[in-house]
Amino acid sequence: MGDNRIAVVVADDDPAVREALADLIDSHPDLELVGLAINHEQAVRAAVDHRPQVVIMDVHMPRGDAPGSVRAIRDQVPEARVVALSAHGERETVLNMLAVGASGYLVKGTPAEEILEAIIRAARDQFSMSAELLADCAEPLRRAERASWRFEDLVGNRLEDSYLELLSHAPCGVLVVGPRGRIEYANAHIRHMFGYSSAELRDKRLRDLVPERYRTASEQLIGRVFTTPSAMSGRRRDGGEFPAQFSGGHLQGRQPRGVVFVADLSQLRAAESRFRQLIESSPDAMLIVDTSGRIQAANHRTEALFGYDRDHLIGRAVEALLPDQPLTVSLREWDDSLEEPVGHSMELVGRRSDAKQFPADVSISPLRTEEGLLTVLTIRDITEVQRAQFVLERSLELLEVTDRDRQALLSHLVHAQEAERGRIAADIHDDTIQVITAASLRLQQLRRRLRDPDEQRVMDKLDETLKLSLSRLRQLIFDLRPSSLEHGCLAGALRGLLEQMRTETGVTYRLEDRLTAHPPAETMALIYRTAQEALVNVRKHAHAKTVHVQLLGLDDGCLVRIVDDGEGYNPLEVESRPGHLGLSLIQERAQIAGGWCRIESEPGSGTTVEFWVPLGTPPGAPLATPDSPDSPEGDPQP
Locate the PAC domain: which residues (predicted)? Predict the structure, then answer.
């Protein structure tokens, strides 16, 4: 080039927009149009051939993708700068372009003067972006900064109070002893145990609560990180003594303080009596067995189930009732374990006194006593349960066969609906938005030639009308096909919905994304549409002020919970009315993916919508029921 004008390449697949941009650049004395392109491949080739200073490029064009084109241009023509121009203004799209090196991002409908200014700024290696886009991209950073400040303030001021609150709910007596050995805190168990009030215990020493013969031992408990329990006696306010167990520890906080735990052993006798009553009143057969497998005790239900008198069972091997099974080995393993044993269940075969056998569910639980480790066996005859389970399994198989065709049809309808949404969004972007953008650029060129103020005001109003049309069309594109879903960001797509609702209705929101797995594209679209339907109900009917949306990973699936503080309703009345299809659609969409849905609401108490879909099962799979092992938390099906 023989002059100092800025060389520009224009890349846009819509002819009207491309020609309007070309005319706009030609009209500026400091700019020179050196090339045109109609797709990403031509954009890169034009940049290499003409080596412009600026490439103004539509993000959505055929034959490639925008981030790849920016990388290629920056690699092959390092001096070139790229300004993105698109009908999409979502955060994910903008950040993806900036991450690969774009020098600016403008939304179609931006005034011509701003487009020209962005080209000139890019040539100076300066950045350009509309204010609303910049604010939207910076919002996550501001939220993170505010959340971090609140967390640090909470931890710094509340940690010690949290320890004391936790100790107040301990199931035993708790004393907190200060650096000078004086009692600073005593929970309700201690006050009841020793007969003192809080004021009377304050500033006493631990040795004041034990007989004189235990004072030295009590002082040794204070200040240690951990001590094993010591059997001593406590002394009450009235001078009476009671057997007790003391152990010491250390309490974290601003000052070093000791903590002492006290258990009243006199209560063990009452506990043993309650334990015997519990075993005897159990509806199931219960046995207490020692580590050698010998029966030590049995309740009356054991007599009825096995047909033996309990006196006949005492001292006999448990194999007499549960023969030829690996039960004794499991009991003996507990005796040598250094860790606290954990109970479990087994399905075994029981044998009655008449030699008849039956399937049995046996729960095995450890029981530590002063005499050693014992085992409690709870035995239930599950003959009828297995018979009912067999009938239920056959019924479920028939139900699945019947349901499969319906789910396949619903799945097809959802896929067809998403495809139609995508086609309509593409038509709006490739045709309507492009034509209106071109008209807006032509209108702004015409306005600069007008000198009459009244005519300029008319043109300004017409320009505002075109901008409003573009804004609404971009929102319609987002509703039909959120770009966040195309980038695999479910939370981003939902945040766009919530932001739109907040802007238009004033309903504030909180979005929690605790989903670590990445859903397949089809499942992600189904989750989004289901949540969208629920949020439409909130917007139209709830009259809510706030809504809370959670994405949770649960049982190899995604649990979505949407809670509003609106007016609520009676589900039985509303769901039966004609025209209320939204709730049915929410449930059917969840079932398509092999999941479930639950809706809870009461007048005046807001509404909770929960639905769960598996992330590894394609749409059309059999419906999971909350009673099955794969259902989250065993929740009942609504």
Answer: 344-394
Residue 260 structure tokens: 């002492």
Is the Cβ–Cβ distance between 582 and 590 less than 8 Å? no
Reference 417, options 533, 515, 539, 497; nearest CA is: 533
Phi, psi of 258 (to 5 degrees): -100, 155
What are 86's strand-pairing partners? 107
Which range marks the domain in which residue 229 is found?
159-268
User: Is residue 585 in a domain?
Assistant: yes
- 420: which strand partners? none
Q: Which residue has the tokens 């993105």?
A: 84
Q: What is the pLDDT of residues 54-65, one digit of tens each?
A: 999 998 889 999
Q: Same domain, yes or no, for 95 and 170?
A: no
pTM over 0.70: no
- Total tally of structural domains belonging to the chain: 4
Q: Does residue 94 have a pLDDT over 50? A: yes
C-alpha 550/C-alpha 544 separation (Å) is 17
Q: Which pLDDT belongs to residue 513? A: 93
Angular region, 209: left φ>0, alpha ψ -120 to 50, beta rest:
alpha
606: left (phi over 0), alpha (psi -120 to 50) or beta: left
- Provide the token pair at 471: 């804004």
Contact 294, 315 (CB under 8 A): yes
Dist CA 135 CA 313 (whole Å): 78
Residue 140 corresponds to which tokens in the numbers above? 């996550």
> If you search the block for the tokens 């729960």, which residue do you land on?
363
How many angstroms separate the first and last alpha carbons of the chain? 73
Tens digit of each residue's pLDDT (9 = 90 or more) over 173-216:
888 888 788 888 898 889 989 999 988 998 899 899 999 998 88
Find the CATH number of the domain harbouring 54.
Answer: 3.40.50.2300
Spatial contact of 619 and 411, defined as CB atoms under 8 Å apart? yes
Identify whether residues 463 and 491 lie together within a single domain: no
306-339 as b/e, with b when 16 or more CB fall inside 10 Å?
bebeeeebeeeebeebbeebebbeebeebeeeee
Are both 18 and 99 inside the same structural domain? yes
**170 domain residue, yes or no:** yes
On whether both 190 and 60 belong to a single domain, the answer is: no
d(CA 334, CA 373): 8
- Token couple for 612: 């769960």
**Rounded distance, CA 9 to CA 37, Å?**
8
* 461 and 495 part of one domain: no
What residues are paired with 31 via a beta bridge?
6
Tell me the C-alpha to C-alpha distance, in Å, between residue 607 and each of 51, 534, 563, 598. 59, 10, 6, 11
Write the CB contacts of 123 (distance below 8 Å, at least 6 apart in sequence). 6, 53, 54, 81
Bridge partners, residue 600, by sequence:
608
Q: CA 212 to CA 233: how far, in whole Å? A: 10
535 with 462, same domain: the answer is: no
Task: Quote the CA–CA distance of 557 and 578 in Å, as a whole number.
Answer: 33
